[in-house]
Amino acid sequence: MQEFLLGAATSAYQVEGNNVYSDFWLMEQAEHTSFKERSGDAVDHYNHYEEDIRLMKKAGMNAYRFSIEWARIEPEKGRYNDGAIAHYRKVLECCHENGITPVVTMHHFSSPVWLIRENGWENEKVVGYFRDYCVYVTAQLGDIMEYVCTINEANMRLQVTSVMRTMLKNMGVNLQVGMNFELPEEYAVGEREISEILGGVKKANTFMAPCTPEGDLLIMEAHEAARDAMKAKCPHLKIGLTLSLHDIQPVTGGEQSAKEIWNEEFTHYLPYIQKDDFFGLQNYTRMLVNAEGELPVPDGKQCTQMGYEFYPEALEHVIRTVSKELELPIIVTENGVATLDDQERIEYLQTALYGVKRCIDDNVPVIGYLHWSLFDNFEWQLGYSKKFGLIEVDRSMQERKPKESFYKMAAIWKTAHTRRDER
């Protein structure tokens, strides 16, 4: 029987530091940027990965989801960086040496600047560009990879589009990623500045920019093209993608609204993932909806640092909903909470993990849980203030300070099994 994958997740841009060829790095440096602070050295995981992976082993984890930075691998179109490939081989080897199964993400939001100069994720050429990058990485590293997520939260661009519509209606905003909607007065100036830096493109179509329906489908075409080409190169690889999903709960009169939102978040992607080997499920909270759409968090409910509801029960609900519509093994590739109180994180973990175990007991094929995140890291436009991590980092010294939750996670999972076995 396959060992359950229990571990944590990161993304390259949020933890490595100095991803100078990435689109977000360019936007951070703009004088009138929407980023509240710059990523800089981040938590310097690029140089501290050995220490970090050994810590994971010490905490009883056996899996690590991390991403490969496309812009490091291909800083200029068609020119690959041998040094970057060598680095990621070392990361993979370190995982294996420590009994950690690597779950590799090929694209986690950030893209090479050259891609954005060519209209980014609205340019149909992105399908071939992404496929070729994935094939190159597979040719170099596929022998020591096993699980691969092509694209992180492939529905994020559509969710950002939906949030923009919601904001226009002055309703609640529920987005499971760090975007800054408190934009400076000079934001329009910053947009023009970035456009000039990119060579005059009218809009920076990054992976966090609102998309057209055609742009949404381009992402799925890129996924399919990459998946098929990588499998052809290395048939042993288990390949899927990840989606950001809410536990959508209708209140009186909201049933049709809930169905439409779920279709946008999940159902309409089903034709493109039937040939995948697993599904990466990412959830943080629930969404209450009425006939008009999403509702704000109810008065009196506990909220996270991100402003959405503290609701770890959502994970079990979403797993069960997905399993009714998709017959694939499920890996929870992200689930967690932004909080300054680590006891809240422990509470969140306990509720979420017990829910996962109940799903498994009911024969739902959940094969892994990867907590977001391993570190308190760079939460995109919101900077370093949001604390998702199992490990605190003193960035002045890059000193790792594991929290109680870091060591508790494996124990909580073990207890969930023991209590079930005793019944």
Mean pLDDT: 93
The biggest beta sheet, please? 9 strands, parallel
> Any idea what the shape is?
globular
C-alpha Rg, in Å? 20 Å
Q: What does this protein look like?
A:
With 423 residues, the chain is α/β, with parallel strands linked by helices. It has one domain: Glycosidases (TIM Barrel), CATH 3.20.20. The protein contains 15 helices and 14 strands. The protein has a 9-stranded parallel sheet with strand order 5-4-3-2-1-12-11-8-6. Strands 7-9-10 form a 3-stranded mixed sheet. Strands 13-14 form a two-stranded antiparallel ribbon. Strand 11 (330-334), helix 14 (342-361) and strand 12 form a beta-alpha-beta unit. The longest helix is centred in the middle third of the chain and has 21 residues, at 213-233.
